[in-house]
Structure formats: structure tokens, C-alpha cells
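Bumping with the actual sequence this time:
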Amino acid sequence: MSDILDLDGKVTLITGAGQGVGRQIALHFAAHNAAGIVVNDYFLERAEQVAREINAAGGKAIARQADVTDLASVRAMIGKAEQAFGPIDVLVNNAGNAGATPDPDARKPFWETGPEVWNSFIGVNLYGVINCASACIPQMIERKGGRIVTIISDAGRAGEAGLEVYSGAKAGAAGFTRAVARSLGRHNITANCVAIAATLTPAIEARLKANPEMQKKMMEKYVIRRPGLPSDVANMVLFLASEASAWITGQTYPVNGGFTFAL
């Protein structure tokens, strides 16, 4: 029986893939016949570690540093990736949070800060998505096919107190992705979002381990009473990147343990 999630030799780019959810997406793609995986991270050494892990297991990966908030940096990265593997077939916009080097005031109420702090969220979560999409889409149109998957957050769907600017940036990324889906469907390019809740990335795992009481209180809000795992997210991203989802576009799929429900 054939693998319905087989990526059929596609070239993939995953941003922010040096750890956590992005790393697991890269590993999932490698296990499902991706022809080449471009592991992006702001910190090259993290991307190189993941690429080595994939290559050691028999996959094909390269590490590429780029700041997704900088269009010139993104274009340079994709140019180098195309030299190694060819044009990008699957783009996963995973880089997020408050960026690679969060502002120390990022957790303060937004009305006590200003654009310098706000842009740390807007830059990576919105402009990062726009930059990467704009750099990959022309080749997808030329080849009449492609997949774009954007990782957003339940904060972008439902709003999150204390994360107002982040919520707005993620909602913006979702709206952008839906519009891209409408524009590019005729070219056999799909664009979808995956909305995640508390997932055990290195940063969140460290916070929860340091404060078991906080974890217990947090998990009371989840129908499935555990944090998400990177593999929970990677499973959905793999589905949306594969031909199994060929007639699905412009959608947002919550992978959130029941933190919020959607119609």
C-alpha cells in the first residue's frame, strides 16, 4: 500500500527549523520522501545540527541561515537553496514567537512599550511570512504547483491577554495566507494555516518544568490535558504538504488539545 503522505520527491523549506516544532517538521518530511529539505534558522549552528541529523538518517538536507524579516536575506537563502536542490515545492512558515533575539520588554503590556517592541512580533510573524512567500511563489506559479503552510497560534484565532501584538500578527498571517490561497488556487498552489497552542518547544518546556503549578493550572484549560508535542503539529503540516490535502486550501486547522473549539 502506498504512503498517502508521501512527499514524492518535493523540495521543502522550513523556516525557524533549528529546534522545536520546525525541527520535527523537518524530520517528518525526511521520513516521507522529501527530495531535499532546506533547514532555515537565524542561528546557523542550530540549522546545521538538524541537517546533520537528517543526513545521518539517510535523508537530504542543507542548513541555511537567514533572517526572515529581511527580504534580501530570504532571497539570498532561497537562491542558494535552489542551487543545491532546485526550486522550492513546499514552504513552511514556522519562524515565529518574538523573533530570534526577543526584546527584553516583549512581555510587558503593549501600551507600556512602543514600535521597537511591537515590531519584534510583527516582523517575524507577519513580514517573515510575506517575505518567504513572495520569494517562493514565482517559481511555484511557473511550475504550476506548490504548497504553503503557515504556523500561526490560537492567539491569532481567539486572542490572548498579554499577547495582543503577537495575536494581531498571527491573525494577519492567517488573513494573508487565505488571500494567497484565493490568488493562487488556479495555479494548483494551496495555502493553509496550522494554529497551535502550548507546545513543548525548548522555551515552553523549560518554563513548565520550572513551575509545575503553572503547568497544572494551564492544562486545566485543555480538553486533552497535556501540552502539545512537536510531533502533533508536524503530523498536520505533513498532511497539508502532501497530496492527501490536494483539495484543501485557505483553511486554518487548530492543533491545540481542545484549548479552543472551532465550527
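The C-alpha cells above came from a reply further down the thread. The mean pLDDT is 95.
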